[in-house]
Every structure is written in C-alpha cells, then in structure tokens.
C-alpha cells in the first residue's frame, strides 16, 4: 500500500530548479498526438533571490517534472513551456517533446512510401521512433509540420502514437495493446495488495454492446475500399476506423472483425485511479485483478492517463481503458 508514503516532487524549468513546491496535472492520450502538462507555482514562491519567478521563465524553455515517494523520483514529463500565466499562483502550460515537431513546415511528395521511410524523413534527432512495416502508398505533405503529419496518420490511417522519454512509438490501433512495452496490475477488493484510490469501472457483457464498425483502407489499385461489420440496428453506435496499408476487401473485413471482437467483450470499461506508483502511462497494458470476482480479471490497453499531484488530493493517476487485450 502507498497510503503512508511521503510524496516528493521536483520541477525543472529552464535553469530554474523548484524542489517540492509545485502542483501539476499531466494529460496523456494515445488518440491524441501530444501529452500536455500544467504546472502551478504557489503565490508564496513568487520571488527568488529578489527577482520574480517570471523573470527566470520564457516560452520554449525545457521542462522536466519528477515525482515519487520517500526520496525516489520518477520522471513523469519532459517537454517545453508553451504559455506562462501572469497572475499568482503562476500557471505554466507545457507541451511534451512534440513541441519540436510543430515547426518548421515541411513540403514533401511521395508516389509511394512506407511508414518507416516517412517517419525517418520527418522525425528530427535526438527523438527516436519505432513502427510497424506498413505501406502507406501515395502521400503528400503540403507545408505541414511533422506534428500535423502525425495527427493525419492517427486520423486517417488507424495508427496510435505515444511519445515517452524521447521515443515515439507508432503502431496499428488493433494491435497496439498487444505490443505494449510495459504492463502493470491494479488489485480490486484486495486489502493486502490493493493499490486503488478510486474505482469508476463498469463491468459489461458482450451482449450489452451495440456497435457497428465502418472500416476504410486502400486497395492495391490506390482507391479506397470500405466494409461494415457489427450491429445492423439503426441506432447502433458506429465507429469509422481507417486501416493503414494496402489490402483486399477480404483482408480488411478480417481486420474489422478482429477489431470488433476487441471492442465487444465481457469485461471492464471506464476508468480507475491508482496512486503515483505503479507508473502507468497511456499506451501501457493494465491487468485488473478482482479478488472477489476472479472471473472478471482481464488485461486492457490504457488509452488515457491523467496524472495529478497536489497537497489536497495527493499523487495519483486516473487510467481510462481502451479495448481488452485478453
């Protein structure tokens, strides 16, 4: 249990080191390209060596947020200052390392390109990346930033992206969870191992879902193909999903059915809030173990994580589940 551990934090803003004085909020989401952070410096910390804290800060400075328990610090966020508030307490809005991907604009045209080649051309060092071998076909970048290109890949090619500690992981939406680099466990109804602050999960049966998937991909001819699977009810929730790579209609249908199977399952949906540790991030996998309902145990892809640190609510991370991995 983490209930009686002592929280610690350390925030670095440019050359300014602020140990244990800030509260912060961090938002991560694999469906969005950028993680963001909001740092709040209390009013009583308004001056350093006779100068206002604001005199030490400027937009574009590097930011690192660390937090932990009992002297053990963990890096929660690395990024850059986007906006500085003028009022007390001072609020600082930050973007993660995708900040460097927002400029300059790029102009490129490909008759045919793979995802790996495209990322090689647009991702600047020292950032690194990993991705599957996917053929995107014809692709054009018309005065757009690398950040905008990645957003387009998420929206139109069925890809998930997550940037953590200088490494960008790009993957296919339907197997992003299976290839998660880190896996953690939350324990429900378990006094000895319990590591939950708040449980907002709901257990649903497969028959409770009413979902239809409209799947779109590129055929070998360069034209798009569309298949629809799932509920035929008029009021069903329809999700439009784009799949990267060139394929046949039969291959697209198989992928759509496989994705539907992950979205329609017996298992938990919603969110669950843990302590600062374990350090679950968006894109990780999370096993939910319920001591009182062992048949409900499952492993899920974490879609979103909201990390908070303050004197009132402590140090916590709210994890929103995506699909069931197994």
TrEMBL record:
Where does the source fall among the domains of life?
A: Bacteria
- Write the protein's name: Phage protein D
Q: What organism is this sequence from?
A: Paludibacter jiangxiensis
What are the top taxonomic ranks of the organism? Answer: Bacteria, Pseudomonadati, Bacteroidota, Bacteroidia, Bacteroidales
């Amino acid at each position: 249990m983490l209930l009686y551990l002592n929280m610690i934090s350390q925030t670095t803003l440019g050359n300014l080191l602020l140990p244990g004085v800030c509260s912060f909020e961090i938002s991560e989401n694999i469906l969005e390209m950028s993680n963001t952070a909001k740092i709040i410096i209390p009013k009583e910390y308004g001056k350093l060596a006779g100068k206002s804290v604001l005199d030490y800060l400027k937009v574009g400075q590097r930011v690192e947020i660390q937090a932990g328990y009992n002297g053990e610090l963990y890096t929660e966020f690395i990024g850059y200052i986007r906006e500085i508030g003028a009022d007390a307490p001072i609020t600082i809005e930050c973007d993660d390392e995708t900040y460097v991907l927002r400029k300059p604009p790029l102009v490129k045209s490909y008759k045919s390109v793979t995802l790996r080649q495209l990322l090689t051309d647009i991702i600047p060092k020292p950032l690194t990346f990993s991705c599957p071998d996917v053929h995107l076909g014809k692709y054009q970048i018309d005065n757009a930033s690398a950040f905008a290109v990645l957003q387009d890949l998420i929206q139109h090619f069925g890809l998930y992206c997550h940037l953590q500690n200088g490494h960008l992981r790009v993957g296919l939406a339907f197997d992003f969870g299976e290839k998660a680099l880190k896996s953690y466990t939350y324990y429900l109804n378990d006094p000895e191992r319990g590591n939950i602050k708040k449980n907002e999960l709901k257990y649903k049966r497969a028959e409770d879902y009413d979902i239809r998937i409209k799947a779109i991909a590129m055929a070998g001819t360069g034209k798009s193909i569309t298949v629809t699977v799932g509920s035929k009810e008029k009021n069903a929730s329809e999700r439009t999903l784009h799949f990267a790579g060139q394929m046949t209609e039969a291959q697209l249908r198989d992928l759509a059915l496989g994705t539907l199977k992950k979205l329609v399952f017996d298992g938990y949906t919603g969110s669950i809030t843990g302590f600062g540790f374990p350090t679950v991030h968006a894109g990780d996998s999370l096993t939910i173990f319920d001591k009182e309902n062992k048949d409900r145990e499952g492993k899920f892809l974490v879609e979103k994580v909201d990390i908070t640190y303050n004197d009132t609510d402590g140090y916590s991370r709210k994890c929103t589940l995506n699909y069931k991995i197994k």
